[in-house]
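Q: My labmate handed me this sequence with no annotations at all. I'd like to see what the chain might look like in three dimensions before we decide whether it's worth expressing. Could you predict it?
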Amino acid sequence: MASEVFDKIVKAIEAGEPELLEFANLAPEDSALILESLLDPRNGLDERAHRIHFSAPDRHLRMIQPSKLRAAAVSWLYEQHTLWVRDRLNDKVALKAMDLLPSPPGITEFTGTYAGSVKEPDFTFFPHKPKGLLEDFPSVVLEFGWTSSEPETVDYRRLWHEGSGGQVRVVIFVKLCRPNAQNQICATLEISHCTPETGTVATTTQIEVFPVPNPIPADPAITMDELFSGYSPSGLNPETELILNVGDLRRVLKTNIIKRGYLPA
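A: Here is what I predict for the chain of 265 residues:
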């Protein structure tokens, strides 16, 4: 079973399609072998642009390949950081205290129920601890995905928050639905927050991107404290809000949806 799943994933990676492969209810011994092979640099797969997601308690494995819509979501968040730097983070100390890592290699340090899980997000903010050391987990992660008519098999927000012991403060999820009969694509932005004290999702905000809601709600935000995972550099107010401009997300998604031959809903 393990070799069959691994071969199927490798063939998909080499072909560049499909964008998503999912495997449910994997036996522990099979999932261990599959992950070991996928993450082994000797197999040359670490240089590819695919993402691996494995939720240990659910025994659920996903292999996701990049798309222009996924890249658009990443470019949006990078643009937001550029605006934060212009308006709030223009201190050299602050800039040196944060690493921006698009698609970091498999994050495996999950604990508790989620020990053995693997996540490869689309974009991350990795703050530095005092003395310049990197955190074990990013403070903020971005993920992109397609919605389904079926209930979600795995709550990846909970995996990030609980599995990291609350170190992952914010999960930003850009979700798109498959084209409908009118060739339209809808999109939703979901943002969940937690604290190390709870280690669970404390609040979740959901905003419709397409169709455009009326009236348009206020843009969501994360705090400086969340971005730096509790280690805000001296001179920065931990309570400062960093806006996530949904209008900017609409702009970049609309451009790429149309380029793919679809229409925003």
